[in-house]
Automatic annotation (TrEMBL):
This is AP-5 complex subunit mu-1. One of its GO terms (biological process) is protein transport. It is found in: Cytoplasm, Cytosol; Late endosome membrane; Lysosome membrane. One of its GO terms (cellular component) is AP-type membrane coat adaptor complex. It comes from the Eukaryota. Keywords: Cytoplasm, Endosome, Lysosome, Membrane, Protein transport, Transport.
Length: 366
């Protein structure tokens, strides 16, 4: 798998939009031209790519109430694999342009597809799509770290080092099979001394004050009918992300997760390779088994020797007996405008102790 082009775009609600970084790989573009033959579509200039991406993502012309390419009912956005319609010389369709966004950053790339353009192959059969998304996700973590809004100086410094980073992880447009979870080691990073073996997941050493940041994101996916004749469906899963700055080659850090009163046990737990030891009862808890009330209910202790970059310590599922969040919405027309209202309610067993709650209601084919 190779990448023809890569773009990193900064935007704030469609305003002050600019391409902060772009890279094209001429060797990959030459291969794309040879493979496509007469159906080859060249990658346009930065300004054209920016305008096409913003239009396809629905971020352009925010002052206009209707834009055909953005709002027409016949237009279906195929995120994260977009289709860009290029006009002018060499016009045609650029596909698949992969995009992911977080906060004010949009990351996009155009992978090389080693398959005939017609008939168009399904996305699931293209290895370049999954590898391209993995590359973008790794770059996103490198640029943003564990938060969604890095300081401007930190983002600028990471963008400045991105050319050297790409030389290591994506030479000549071909991503290497390397973990893309954070900044790679640089020549200025202190290296271990003595007989201690450097673990494979650690790229250098930290010097300075010890800081450990832990973030827990729990997701509730639910279909609620509001009808006693139909049973509601829901599942709960979460991830624990860490960023540790601790001195030493193999420092010992332990993160403990404690369930709230009457909390449901964690199941299907997957941990990062840096976790040094774990109770067998934690790893054997599975959502496939029938819950009989005897499952291990914590506290869950995760001792590990952390890497320098942000990483996912563990992921889990939980079989809760009732939906943690109940919701309903109304959609009605008033004065030629659609009014959309959402009501959310926490179940009485859930304590409002989280920092934020984000609700997403999918409207398919819109």
């Amino acid at each position: 798998m190779s990448v023809r082009a890569l773009w990193i775009i900064s935007q704030e609600k469609g305003e002050n939009v600019s391409i902060r970084f772009s890279r094209r790989f001429s060797t990959v573009e030459h291969r794309a031209k040879s493979l496509a033959g007469s159906s080859y579509v060249a990658v346009p200039d930065e300004s054209t790519v920016l305008q096409l991406l913003l239009t396809e993502l629905g971020l352009s012309d925010s002052h206009k109430s209707y834009v055909a390419l953005r709002d027409d009912c016949l237009h279906r956005q195929r995120s994260p694999a977009l289709e860009l319609c290029v006009d002018g010389p060499g016009k045609g369709l650029l596909w698949p342009v992969l995009t992911i966004s977080q906060g004010s950053l949009i990351l996009a790339c155009l992978p090389l597809v080693d398959a005939p353009a017609e008939p168009r192959p399904p996305l699931a059969s293209l290895l370049s799509v999954s590898q391209g998304l993995t590359l973008l996700a790794g770059l996103q973590t490198f640029l943003l770290g564990s938060g969604s809004k890095p300081d401007n100086e930190g983002l600028a410094s990471r963008l400045a080092t991105l050319p050297s980073v790409l030389l290591q992880i994506c030479p000549l447009g071909t991503p290497l099979d390397l973990p893309l979870l954070g900044a790679p080691a640089t020549s200025a990073a202190p290296m271990p001394t003595g007989n201690q073996k450097q673990p494979a997941w650690k790229t250098g050493l930290h010097r300075g004050r010890a800081v450990v940041n832990v973030a827990l994101i729990e997701t509730v996916r639910s279909m609620q009918y509001g009808n006693r004749s139909r049973q509601d469906l829901w599942d709960v899963y979460g991830t624990v992300t860490c960023k540790c700055e601790v001195e030493g080659v193999l420092p010992n850090v332990t993160v403990t997760l404690t369930l709230p009163p009457n909390g449901s046990p964690l199941q299907d737990i997957l941990v990062h390779p840096c976790v040094t030891s774990l109770d067998s009862s934690i790893l054997t808890a599975s959502s496939v088994d029938n819950y009989d009330g005897s499952a291990f209910s914590g506290p869950y202790k995760f001792p590990f020797s952390p890497p320098l970059e942000p990483f996912r310590l563990c992921s889990y599922t939980s079989q809760v007996p009732v939906p943690p969040i109940l919701g309903s919405y109304q959609l009605k027309e008033e004065d030629n405008q659609l009014c959309f209202s959402v009501n959310l309610k926490l179940h009485e067993s859930v304590k409002n102790s989280f920092e934020y709650c984000e609700a997403r209601l999918p409207f398919f084919n819109r």
